[in-house]
Amino acid sequence: MTEAIAGPPATYQELRAQLQDRQPTMAPGQRRIARLLLDDPEGTAFRSIGETARLAQVHSSSLVRFAALFGLSGYPALVRLCREQLASEAQLVHRLERAQRHTATAELLGAVVEHDQRNLSRTFAQLDHADWDRVVELLADAPAVSVIGLRKCFSVAYLMSYLLHLVRPRVRQIGGGGGLLVDELRELGPSDVLVAVSIRRYARDTLRAVEYARRVGVVVVALTDDPSSPLARLADVTFYVSTAGVTVLRSLSVFTSVVQALATAVAVRLGTSSRDELLTDERLLGEFETYVEPS
Fold first, then answer.
1. Close Cβ partners of 253 (under 8 Å, ≥ 6 residues apart)
2. Over the chain (295 residues), what is each successive 10-residue block's mean pLDDT?
3. What's the burial of 295, exposed, middle or buried (CB within 10 Å: 0-12/13-18/19+)?
């Protein structure tokens, strides 16, 4: 059983931090309750104790005990924190409905556009500007930057490492194959930055890489989907990217926008040195005749 926590959370942000910190040691039923509070505070704000208990597959009394673990008076106190969070984010785009089946071509294409537009608005509205500035500074000034994203997140990691390498030296993508992840991790050093990209279902090797990086003093930046993501409790800074959609896999479109914006911000911060990197790239591309110009 999880022990009670001293000092009840006064805001949803404090509750979220405590949930993320305590989640690994919780019993299975408690973890299901925590995931509901982390991933769907909007829904929890308006659900009865019975409805939440049904979704978490626990008894109603478990929710009362769960609240007490955090020093709260009961389920209504959890609801109050969730409702206050809703009020503070009233300007955000409403949470998307569950993906529905679309068969007609026009309907499918329209649904994809609608979901991605809402994902984009929601993601950028939620970005904390102080965190953004901190990450841009880290990516610009760190001795070296490594990026990891596996399976469905591989393309995001590739794009980020490619764009960052255009504007600064010592950027690499790790975990790309060949069973060399351990060898690549060995090169991480204190004050380096590791950018980790993962969405549900979370790749085990990405989590192991982040855990190792933290042990050796590497700063970790996470790009992930939900506050219940295991990356959220491990990273120094976390950006949450909305991925709802109607495609075969969860939408990665907004990741592209976030990564391009970060790389551009890093280039602006670096100024002259970034321009020199780009000029060197252009010279080499010309010498190797990398691209074919239209005739």
1. 116, 119, 120, 245
2. 64 90 92 91 87 93 94 92 73 41 64 85 91 97 97 95 94 85 92 95 92 96 92 94 80 94 95 74 79 73
3. exposed
pTM of the model: 0.71
Phi, psi of 109 (to 5 degrees): -65, -40
User: Residue 141's pLDDT is what?
Assistant: 96
User: What is the per-residue pLDDT for 179?
Assistant: 76
Decide: 226 and 92 in contact? Cβ < 8 Å: no
| The dihedral formed by the CA atoms of 252, 257, 261 and 263, expressed in degrees to the nearest 10 | 50
pLDDT at 114: 84
**Which pair of structure tokens corresponds to residue 274?**
């970034």
* All residues at 6 or more sequence positions from 46 whose CB lies less than 8 Å from its CB, including other chains: none
Q: Specify the pLDDT at position 65.
A: 94
Q: What is the pLDDT of residue 4?
A: 47
Question: Helices marked H in the chain — which ranges?
Answer: 12-22, 28-39, 41-44, 49-56, 60-69, 75-88, 105-126, 129-141, 154-167, 181-185, 204-215, 230-234, 253-270, 272-287
Spatial CA neighbour of 19 closest among 226, 236, 241: 226
β-bridge partners, 148? 174, 196
Predicted local distance difference test score (pLDDT) of residue 280: 79
Residue 234 tokens read as 């491990």
Beginning with the edge strand found earlier in the chain, give each strand of the sheet holding 193-197 in spatial order: 171-174, 145-149, 193-197, 219-224, 237-240
Structure tokens, 173: 């993508």
Other CB atoms within a 10 A radius of the CB of residue 73 amount to 12
Domains of the chain listed by start with CATH number: 12-88 (1.10.10.10), 120-287 (3.40.50.10490)
Length of the chain: 295
